[in-house]
Each structure stands twice: as structure tokens, then as C-alpha cells.
Protein: NmrA family protein
Organism: Trichoderma gamsii
Amino acid sequence: MAAKIGVFPASGALASSIVNHSMKFFPASRLVLVARSPEKLTEWNQLGATIRKADYDDHSTLNGVFDGVETLMLISYASFEIEHRVNVHRAAIDAAIRSGVKHIFYTSLGFAGNLTDDSVTHVMGAHLQTERYLSQLTDKITYTSVREGLYSESFPLYIGWFSLQNPADEITIPHSGTGPGVTWVKRDELGEGTAKLIYSFVTNPASFQYLNKNVLLTGPREISLLETVNIFGRLIGKSLKIREIAVEDYLLLPQVRGKYVYHGVDLSREWTTTWQGLRNGECAVVSPSLKEILGREPEEFETTIKALLG
């Protein structure tokens, strides 16, 4: 019987992309898809995938949920807390080991993009700790940490919650927009690239080049926040500008209120460390890996945004 490939949690946007692309390489019967709301996975179940229920926030549901899975795609917990996020990641990793999983792919993030284990950003904290935890378990399991570059579609997080549909004239963030930028990358291409990494490992683990390593997936070029905004302006036909404000002023903006609350804790101030990470060039590294994996140049940021506009 062919070894099973698991995905947990399997219902988010990146996970859905990974699953959809994985089905081009594997029969659905080889996939074990785990989610807190398995009813969201009905379509894949009808295609032959095994559907199971588990919740990061209820560790008891993880016991045995990965049984029969040899390779697990572990999608990181959807927040940017540190302690809680690390704890749930460790619980899932430990459960995977107990179930006999042999290799874990983990979706990390593209900060610390030069593949170091250091970042000034709060959002990268749990990823770095999870990567370190995996690296300490190589006597029990192998791993690959996929540092997924910043999604093109996630630009509102870094551009002061700017809306393409209801654009303000001025973008106010604690950053001038100049200096090192972002290697924006289309989310579905990250999903495709990650699925191809899984296929490469499963079909020939002996020659897999990212065994017990990190791999960075990015877009084709670095784009400053100022150029990012200029692209928006060009596409919507409106003159836009960035006005740099103090962190304290950013925290008072009405569009920020409530955007960064997790488990009752407001992490708005912690989020502002992302702009320091950008200043340090953490997201400015252009990696050739995604191009090599896809066999083509990743999509340009402007092309992705134009498609969002319809």
C-alpha cells in the first residue's frame, strides 16, 4: 500500500492550494486531510481523500489523527502569537511522531529570508522556535521548513490595511516606503511549489536536497513598499502616497483597531516590528528556489494584483 500524505490543517487558503496541486501528483486516496471543520473538505472526500477531524487548540484531538501518515504537511497556526503558537505546533509534531510520521513539511514564513535563525519581527518568533524544535528531533523524524515568502495577496497587512476597492489617497504606516522591500509571491504559486516539494521528497527521498533544512520560496524580484503603492496607483488610476508616522500614531488608527487581537490579547504593537524587519532587508532576498521548483519564473506582483481587481 502506498504511503499516505497528510495535511493539517487542510482547509485554509494555502493548504487548499497545496492540496489542489498535490492531487495532480498523487491519487486522492493517498491523502489524509485533517481539519477542525471536516465538513469543509467534503469535495475532496468525494474524490477519495481520507478526512479526519482535529483542532490545534484541543491537543486531545491530535492523538492518533496522523496514524498511517508517512509524510505530513503541517500548516502553521493562524495567528502571530509566540508562546501559544509554539505550544500547538509542538503538540502536533509530537502527535505526528507518536503516529509514526517519518517526515514533516512545515510552513514557516519569509522573514529572516537569508535563512538565518534570527529576526527582529514578532511574527517570525514562533516559526523560528518551531524550526529549532524540529531540528532537535532528527533522531526521530526528518523535516523541511518551507519559508513561504510574503503573499502578494497579503499586502494590506504591510500597507496599512489599504483597500484596492475603496482606496484612500494616503497610506499611513511606520515606514517611509523606501529602502529594502518585499519579494512578493503569489499564494497559489507557493501552494504549487510546496506540493512539488512534497512530490519530490515522496518519490525520491534519498536525493531530496532540503532534508532537515529550510527552503525559501519568493517572487522574482524585490519591490519596495513605495513601488508597491505606485503599482496600486497605476492599476486603479489614482495618485497614492505613503506618509510615515510614529508607531504610537499607527496604533491609534481606526483601521488598525481589533485587527491584531488573538485570545483576547492585542498584539498591534508587536505587529509593528514587521516594518523594522523590512528595513533590515529580511524580506528582500530573492531566492531562485521557487523558479527552479516550478520550472518557470514566478508571477510578477503587478500581474497578481491586476487579477485581484478583475
